[in-house]
Amino acid sequence: MMNTTNTLYWKMDLHTHTCAGGHGTNDSITDLAREAGKRQMELLGISDHGPATPGSADLSYFRGLSLCEHRRFGVHLLYGAEANILDQDGHLDIPDDILQTLDYCIISMHQNTYTSGSIRENTNAYIRSMSHPNVKIIGHCDDSRFPVDYRELVTAALSHGIMPELNNVSLLPDSHRSGGRANAITLLDQCAALSCPIVLSSDSHGREQLGNVREALELIKELDFPHNLICQHGLDIFPSYDCI
User: Fold this and answer.
1) Residue with the larger pLDDT of the pair 48 and 233
2) How many CB atoms lie within 10 A of CB 216?
3) What does DSSP assign to residue 6?
4) In this structure, are residues 172 and 215 in contact, taking their beta carbons and an 8 Å threshold?
């Protein structure tokens, strides 16, 4: 049984950002990996914002990630991206030939890169973007500024083998996102009803909140969300990675 009361840091964090992400931190991949080792984490995913995000790295950065080490400071590292959904057709700001070289991809909507539409239009945009190679996670789909049909979204995620994310930042009282807690509850209700696994993420911009999913764990405990639907180690989402 998972302990949700004494957990300091989650063992796996796949939604994290470095200085290449465009805002919020001066920390490098090395800084995050070193901190993850200190916090006795097992798996760290680097997922900087795609190049459409103002100030983020260009495509050459993501192309070069395939050359990075996958074991540092006792932590297994995976290299991905938080790609921006650009339009209602589901286009992303990282081309497929680069996505194929990454370990994984998170798909997300942000105000500065996507113009929100109706519930139907936003839901379709998410679903269409799931067809891109190496998409593994739906990032913070809990923002009322981008309303969606959660049942349709979860159903599509299941069919594509993709996990919705329970984003810790969305649950903070001062979160910049709108309606995060209420929408997260609706998302979790649909995931429980349809037996769809989820992944917990810190969405840490830098070292400070790395592996911190305390609010997410508290909400899971409050809702009595099924523990068997929570991705707790790399093999849950990356079954082909024998070394995890």
Assistant:
1) 48
2) 27
3) S
4) yes
Question: What was the pLDDT predicted at 232?
Answer: 80
Nearest to 57 by CA among 84, 30, 77, 34: 84
More confident residue, 232 or 207: 207
**Residue pLDDT, tens place only, 152-193:** 999 999 999 999 999 999 999 989 999 999 999 999 999 999
* C-alpha distances in Å from residue 13, one per residue of 53, 162, 201, 203: 21, 16, 6, 8
Three-state DSSP class for 205? strand
- pLDDT of residue 239 exceeding 80, the answer is no
Looking at residue 1, its pLDDT comes to 33
Contacts for 116 with CB less than 8 Å, ≥ 6 apart: 109, 122, 145, 146, 147
Per-residue model confidence as pLDDT tens digits over 49-80: 999 999 999 999 999 999 999 999 999 999 99
Say which amino acid occupies 93.
D
Q: Which residue has the tokens 């909140």?
A: 209
Residue 151 dihedral angles phi and psi, to the nearest 5°: -65, -45
Contact 168, 216 (CB under 8 A): yes
Q: Is the dihedral of CA 107, 108, 109, 112 positive or negative?
A: negative
Tell me which residue of 111, 132, 138 sits closest to 52, measured CA to CA. Answer: 111
Q: Which of 135, 140, 63, 78 is nearest to 105 (CA)?
A: 135
Angle at 195 between CA 105 and CA 217, to 5 degrees: 70
